[in-house]
Amino acid sequence: MFKFTTPQKIVELGAVKIGGQPGELPTAMVGSIFYHGDKIVKDEKTGLFDRGRAENLLKAEEELSDRTGNPRVIDVVGSYSEALIRYVDFVAEHTDSPFLVDGITADVRIPAIKHAVETGLNSRALYNTVCAEVKPEELQVLHELKVKSAVILAFNPRKPTVDGRLEALAGTQEKPGLIQQTVEAGVQNILIDLSVLDVPDVGPAAKAVYLCKERFGYPAGCAPANAVDMWKKTKAFTQSDFATSHASLLASTIVMGANFVMYGPTSRADISYQAVAVADAIVAYTMRQMYRTRPLTERHPLFKIF
Description:
Blueprint: E1 10-13, E2 16-19, E3 28-33, E4 41-43, E5 48-49, H1 51-68, E6 72-78, H2 81-94, E7 99-103, H3 106-118, E8 125-130, H4 136-145, E9 149-153, H5 162-170, H6 178-184, E10 189-193, H7 202-216, E11 220-222, H8 224-230, H9 239-254, E12 260-265, H10 273-291, H11 301-305
C-alpha cells in the first residue's frame, strides 16, 4: 500500500466527504438511475417513470450504504432537460444524498443544473461533466450560476492513454487543461473521472487514478461499469461469473487509490457495495499498520467488515 506525497484534497458534497489519503475515507459509490434503457423510465422525453420502483431502488441502495459505511452519490441521468429536471426533483425529495446532474449534452445539463441551483440544491448537485469538448459558453454558465461542484472527465480523444488523460487535465502550452478551466469557472469541489474505454482499459484508468492523485491531489475515480457494459463475453457468463468479474473490476481501482467508483445501474448495488467495502477495509487496515493513517469517520468499512 502507499501514501501520496502530494497533499490530498477532501471535498464536501452535502453530508458526504470524498477524497484524502487511502484509508481515511470510505469510497463513494456512484450508481446510475433513469439512464437510457432503464426499465423504470416510461417516457424519456417528459421524464415519466415508475415512482414506486425508483423509490425501491434508492431505498435498497441506502440500506447497503448504511450497512457497509460507503456513502453514495446518485448519478441522475437524462436525455432531455425536462426529464432530467423531473428526475433531479425526485431524487432530491426522496434522499439526502449528493447527486450528479448527468445530461448527455450541455443543452440538457445546463437547464437542469440551473434548476438545481435555483431550488437550493447547489451543495448536493454536481455538474457532470466538464470534458475535452467543453465550450467557453458552457463554462461561462457554470460561473454565472455559481455552480459549486463538478466532475471532470479526463479523456483525451487524440491520446487515449494514461499520459493522455493527465495531459487533458494539466493542459499544454497551446491550451489550458480541464482542471484550470474548471477552477476558473468558479467550481470549488472537483471530482476527476479517469475515463474507461473498454474492459482492459480499467487497468490504465486505475493507474491514471494513482498518478492523478499524486500529481494534482484531487479526489479521483473511474467507471469500471462502462467496461462491464461493453464486455460482449458477459452474455455467456453465469450470474456468479458476472458478479465476481464486476466485483474484481471495482476492487482493482480501490487498491490504486480511487476515492469514488461508478458501479453502473443502481440495480447492481447488491453486487457492488460489499466488494468495495471489503477492499476499503483491507486498504484502511494496511494504511493504519504501515503509516498510522486512521479513518476519519467511525462509519468506515474497516469497522463494519472486520
